[in-house]
Every structure is written in C-alpha cells, then in structure tokens.
Amino acid sequence: MLLCSHYCRFSVVAYLQQIWWFEVDGTVKFPFPPDIYSLSFRIHLGRFSRRLGRRVSSFEHTHGWDIKPVRFEFSTSDGQQASSECFLDDSQQDEDYKVGEFIVGESDSETEVRFSMKQIDCTHSKGGLCVDSVSIVPIELKGRKGRGVLK
User: Fold this and answer.
1) 112 is in which domain, residue-wise?
2) What's the pLDDT tens digit per position in 1-29?
C-alpha cells in the first residue's frame, strides 16, 4: 500500500500492512570525502495521517515486530562491516536505527556500501511498518539535524 505522507523524507512511501518475510537491501557506490560516516535506517511504526492540522497515529495493523528482532547490517568495499539487532515497538513511532559507522580514508576513490534490514522468521506475521529512508551522514553533521543542515 502506498501512502502520501507529510512526515516522511519522501512524499510517497510504502506501508507494509501484513507480511511474513521482510527484507530490504541496497547498495550505493559514491566518492565519499574522507570522514567518519554513520549509517542508519529511518523507520515508522503505524500509519500516520493529519487531522485538524495535527499528526495522528494509527497502530491498527502494527504487530509482530516485538516477537523476534530485526537485523540491520552494512559492509563496505574495503571490508568494514557492522550489524545490530533490535526489537521494534510502537513506543518508538519514528526512529532512526543506527547500524554503525565506517571510515573513508584519503586514498579511497569510490566506496561501495551494502546495507540491509531483515526479519525473516516466518513463524509469525508482521505489519504496520514504513521504511522511510536509509541515511549515510558524516558523524559531525548527525547532531545538527534540528538546525537546518539536514532534513
């Protein structure tokens, strides 16, 4: 199901109402300037809408994310890697789930970053999830999020 949202990084996002197997992965190859970068997934649990100019959350279809953990991973073309696991719950409606950090050195021309988010235990269904975005941000800019530097 596609949703139009004022609360996501993009104007239209996919909303997963009910699934058994969940896997998102991607790759980016980019000439990152030398720095230390943080990779995170922006996740929304529940369905958001506006009512009378206010944000309203509905958790009608949100279920199954608290039974088994979700696994976040990334690896880089020079062998750096990180992973983390956590349970998702609707008390964390909008959340940036940090996977880890990686370093780009002076001599790196292009760095390839492979990332994924998985919950592939098929013993239960899951639902009510929106993956807003994946961000790769220099760690010194991560703290400036509310000051107009990043959306």
Assistant:
1) 21-140
2) 445 455 556 567 777 888 899 999 999 99
